[in-house]
């Protein structure tokens, strides 16, 4: 029997009486095994073709040092096609990822890994979506902390490429962000929300700064019953008034200053006033010091209230004000430019005539603000390579985020434009589904970092959380969130080789995977409160999985962008 896509596979069990006894779990395991066999056969075919043409290239997914190189981008494909060993397309065929041709209108199986292969023949000058292949590499002039990479002469591409493992890509993005020197500026309290503290908050006074009443009622001195002192009661914001004599009482409001010699406050509901005799009686036992907030109960002047690196939340603003601050010293928010690519995108109305609505433009700005960034209005550039080049090379942002154009289609301009600009390509493809054609680069001469997101919406979310979120966190000096691993409620299918990010919702003490989790879908993530990190091969029900919280549903630090 032949596997789907035309690739030969091992014989499957007969469909006779024995097959009827196969359990659902065994059939699922068989399907996964068949998929893995087909993938391995495809890799073997491509690997043999590559080794025959260049003995120095490494086989796809072979263990190797992490060397991320600029290369001819690979298309993100989803439809099955027949794997072939030749590398030059025949008439009527289009080059498939990795230089292997496929019949026009077909592409690789969904979720299948894309193998490294020799570069295709040089494209014609009117094919701006491709690099000119070259084997001559210029030495790198920039080094990312903790990363090993190669910097290429603009317009060139290496002969082999391997996607970066998902965890390694996230760690590299975090290190790159933290390598940026942190600046500091003084912010009035009404502008400090969401920033990271560059200086610790130290109490400038005792809190409270004097003894105050915790309740409305009566302040008393000594044992009762007490004689009511004539005159106005004690109110918040006024002086302490005259000292109380032993056996005296006076009305007091919450927050009012406690007069000298007072021993307790009796709540209004726990007291009985004999107006005829002007005497106050307690209906409960009175304990010395009850319902009095003593000076310095919360902190003493000079106590550290918040350390460097804490995120300014609404309660932080209140605490700082109470402690005597008018402004805080914070790290500036990372500035982000968003470039939306694609001639097929509409900004209003219903899809029509091959045009679709832009889902990423409205989504990315608020999402990035929830990560603590300062975001400019999206720039809609269409499929214009020159407009993309100008936007990248003139941006004064810390990070430029592009949407779409990271594969190798005829109008996918991100790779060639970055190469022409002399960008340092740090991550070019990540072993994650959806979203593997994402990239991370850095423009020369102190230019911004660039994160290239795939155009499919959920794939773009994957790129956002894989590369942009840790990069921005590092730039802002935010601490990494603590990882946690709840059990998954049901079995989750995995990719044979790559990590999968699956929208989930928390239910009691577990997470439930959501449907509608395809690369182009947002229905699942719209109902989710996190993404489960599913390792290659998938997980069984009850297995603990790492969760990436979504910023508006997690315990992550609050910023003003969460709901704007």
UniProtKB/TrEMBL annotation:
The function of this protein is: Catalyzes the insertion of molybdate into adenylated molybdopterin with the concomitant release of AMP.
Q: Does the keyword S-adenosyl-L-methionine apply?
A: no
- Official protein name in the record: Molybdopterin molybdenumtransferase
| InterPro entries attached to this UniProt entry | MoaB/Mog-like_dom_sf, MoaB/Mog_dom, MoeA-like, MoeA_C_domain_IV, MoeA_C_domain_IV_sf, MoeA_linker/N, MoeA_linker/N_sf
The regions listed as transmembrane in this protein's record are none
The question of whether Metal-binding is a record keyword is answered with yes
Composition bias (Low complexity) maps to 1-17, 56-91, 101-115, 130-147
Instruction: Name the residue ranges with Basic and acidic residues bias.
Output: 18-39
Q: Region Disordered: list its residue ranges.
A: 1-167
Top-level EC class as recorded in UniProt: transferase
Q: What is its EC number?
A: 2.10.1.1
Q: Which reaction does it catalyse?
A: adenylyl-molybdopterin + molybdate = Mo-molybdopterin + AMP + H(+)
Family to which the UniProt record says this protein belongs: Belongs to the MoeA family.
User: According to the UniProt entry, which residue ranges have a biased composition of type Pro residues?
Assistant: 116-126
Could you tell me the keywords of this UniProt record? Magnesium, Metal-binding, Molybdenum, Molybdenum cofactor biosynthesis, Transferase
Looking up Pfam families in the UniProt record yields: MoCF_biosynth, MoeA_C, MoeA_N
MoaB/Mog domain location, by residue? 337-474
Q: Which CDD domains match?
A: MoeA (cd00887)
Its cofactor is: Mg(2+)
The pathway it acts in is: Cofactor biosynthesis; molybdopterin biosynthesis
